[in-house]
Amino acid sequence: MTEDFDKAKSLIDSAQHILLTMHERMDGDDGGSILAFYHQLRATGKQVNCAIKKGVPPHLAFLPGSEQITDDAAGHAYDLLITFGCSDLKRTGSDNIINLKSQVPHLKIINIDHHPDNTHFGDVNVVDHAKSSVAELVYDLFVFHNWPITKNIATCLLTGIITDTGGFMHSNTQSSTLKAAAQLMRKGAQTSQIMRQTFKSKQPQVLKAWGRAMENSHYDDKNKIIFSVMSESDIKNIQGLPQAAFEGFTETLNTFPGARFALFLRQDGEVIKGSLRTTPYKNTDVAQIAKLFGGGGHKMAAGFSLAGKLTKDKTGKWRVV
Questions:
Q1: CATH code where residue 277 lies
Q2: Which residue segment(s) compose the domain that 227 sits in?
Q3: What domain count does the chain have?
Q4: Which helix (H) or strand (E) holds 228?
Q5: Are 156 and 65 in contact (CB under 8 A)?
Q6: Which of 8, 31, 119, 150 is 20 to 30 Å from the Cα of 139, by its Cα?
Q7: Do residue 33 and residue 101 come from a single domain?
């Protein structure tokens, strides 16, 4: 990994205008990592743009620098693209970014990720499956190059670690994770603020949506699966639902005793989003299940997207049309 860290720094040092991006729909891990990089690159005099499809969800607007994030990368001439948490460029959901390499042949790409299904599409691939989060991997890169970690950078990185470990409760939490978190706290990041913003601040519409999703949950005793579905009509009936309303819901569903894994399906326009969660003792690899539907992720947490609509047939069973 140290060789990849050196190669990444070499590309960064030679670049002038850098684009930072991640998968569609910002989360705390990759979004926090992007903003940590943004602060570091700006401090060294680089021109930097941050583009994330669908922008910043309300619960992450507290992150320092989040106002710099746009939802489109068009209109600029970049010489370096750095992606965070993307198994491939299609995960960005942006045609402008997907086609950037063909439009700018000299463009270099640094691919930073911790997911095992990463395709290593970058000119430099900083990919470590053993890390709890992209943010922990980025922290290691900062430490390796002795880059200064300000309070703002520490807040961004600790947010990434906390959200991707479920507040240090998920099985991906390791001793290295806790050591990194402790150092970031020493730099001024406050766990209480981060936990309040990311886990303990739900709007009334979100609580209503979770209630509806719980009502729609069903336990398949034969296959030992707990699942829930939010159809287009379910979502439309709840006004003002924020972008990341269901973040953390599948983890809650996964607490059902006896289930091998939890599955949550929700309609998102013309696409069905699927989220899968399990825990180590259940001996189920949900990433393999996600792959059957063109998705991927980790053994304990994975997801996929399908084109189509969720509908109920005459027998009350859910179908995709």
A1: 3.10.310.30
A2: 204-320
A3: 2
A4: strand 225-230
A5: yes
A6: 119
A7: yes
Do both 220 and 161 map to the same domain? no
207: helix, strand or coil: helix
CATH code for position 8: 3.90.1640.10
Residue 111 β-bridge partners: 83, 125
Q: Do 302 and 194 belong together in one domain?
A: no
Amino acid at 222: K
Question: What would the 3-class secondary structure string for 235-266 be?
Answer: HHCCCCCCCCCCCCHHHHHCCCCCCCEEEEEE
Percent of the chain exceeding pLDDT 70 equals: 100
Among 177, 198, 219, residue at a domain's last position: 198
- What are the DSSP calls for 132-189, one per residue? S-HHHHHHHHHHHTT----HHHHHHHHHHHHHHTTTTTSTT--HHHHHHHHHHHHTT-
Do 117 and 208 have their domain in common?
Answer: no
Burial of residue 40 (CB within 10 Å: 0-12, 13-18, 19+) is: buried
Q: What are phi and psi of 205, to 5 degrees?
A: -65, -35
Are residue 51 and residue 147 in the same domain, yes or no? yes
Q: In angstroms, rounded to a whole number, what is the distance separating the alpha carbons of residues 166 and 73?
A: 31
Over residues 2-56, the pLDDT tens digits come to: 899 999 999 999 999 999 999 988 999 999 999 999 999 999 999 999 999 889 9
CA atoms within 13 A on the CB side of 205: 12
Q: Are 293 and 274 in contact (CB under 8 A)?
A: yes
- Token pair in block for residue 127: 């990919």
Determine if residue 37 is left, alpha or beta; phi over 0 gives left, psi from -120 to 50 gives alpha, anything else beta.
alpha
CB 87 within 8 A of CB 117: yes
Q: 99 exposed, middle or buried (CB, 10 Å; 0-12, 13-18, 19+)?
A: exposed
- Find the Cα–Cα–Cα–Cα dihedral 263, 266, 272, 278, rounded to 10°: -20
83 touches 30 (CB < 8 A)? no
275-297 pLDDT per residue, tens? 999 998 888 999 999 999 988 88
Q: Say how far apart CA 87 and CA 84 lie, in whole Å.
A: 9
